[in-house]
Amino acid sequence: MISQSHDNDIEEKSVDTATGEAAPADISETRVKSVFSEIATQYEKFNHVSSFGRDRVWLDRLVELAPVDSKTRMLDVAGGTGEVTFRMCAEKAPESILLTDYTPAMLEVAKKRIDRGDAKGTPVLTKVVDAQDMALADDSFDVVTMAYGIRNMPKRMQALKEILRVLRPGGTAVILEFSTPKNPIVRFFYHGYLRWGIPAWGQHFTGHRDDFVYLAKSIRAFPDQEHFCEMLRTAGFTNVEYHNVTFGVAALYRAQKPVTE
C-alpha cells in the first residue's frame, strides 16, 4: 500500500502499478496490455469465480450509485469486455455509452457481446483509448464509470484529471476498485488470498500464473480508501465519497465535477 505520507506532487508522477513506487510509465503500460490481451476471453469468468460471485453484487452497487437515466451520455473508462456497460444497459438504458479500453483484445470480446444483443437497444460504441490521455472533447459526458481500471494506470492523477475534463460540469464519476480491508484479521486473510489464491485461479483459467501474480501485486500496491479519495479531491473533484463492499475488499467511489471551476 502506498504510504499516505506521500505528498500530492508524488501522485503527479508515474508509478510501477505492481509496487506503487515511482517508475517510467512504459513499464506498466507494456505489462498491462500484455496481461489483459492474454486473459481477455476468460476475464469475466475469472472475476466471478475468484470473487466467489461477489463481483456481481459490486457491479449492482456501482449501477445503483451512478445517476444514469434515459438522457445520460455515459463514458465507460477501462471498460474492458463491457461488464459495467452491459449491466448499465440492462438496468438503466442510458441515451448512449462510449465503451473504451487500452487493450484492443478486451474490446473485441465486448464487440461480440454487442453483436449478440447484450446492449439491449442502447447505442454502444467502442474505442481504444488511453485513459491517461483521452482524445475526447471537454464537458462531453454526464457520467463516467470505471471498474478495476485505475490501479493499472501508472499516471493515475493524470487519468483522474482526464476524467474530470471530459465530464460536464455537475457530472459524476463512479469508480469501483479493489481496496484495503480495515479489519486486521480480514486484511491478513485477504492478502494471503491475493498472494496464493489469485495466481492459482489464473493458472486454472488461462495457464498464465505470472499474469495473475501481477494482478494480485497491483491490488496490494493500490492506495487505501482515504488516500484515493484525497487523490480525487486533488484532481479537482468535489463531493467525494466511498462505500466499502465485502468488508472493504473493494470500494466504490463517487465524485462530482464542480459546476463552476
What does this 3D model show about the protein?
This protein is of the alpha/beta class. The chain has one domain: Rossmann fold (3-Layer(aba) Sandwich), CATH 3.40.50.150. The protein has a 7-stranded mixed β-sheet with strand order 3-2-1-4-5-7-6, sandwiched between helices. The chain is globular.
Please give the domain count.
1
CATH class: Alpha Beta
Strands, total number: 7
Stated plainly, the CATH topology is called Rossmann fold
On the 0-100 scale, what is the average pLDDT? 90
Q: Percent helix among the residues? A: 40-55%
> Count of helices?
10
Instruction: Please describe the biggest sheet, giving its number of strands, its sense, and whether it closes into a barrel.
Output: 7 strands, mixed
What is the CATH architecture descriptor? Answer: 3-Layer(aba) Sandwich
Radius of gyration: 17 Å
Strand order of the largest sheet: 3-2-1-4-5-7-6
Structural class: alpha/beta
Keywords:
seven-stranded mixed beta sheet; 261 residues; alpha/beta; 7 strands; Rossmann fold
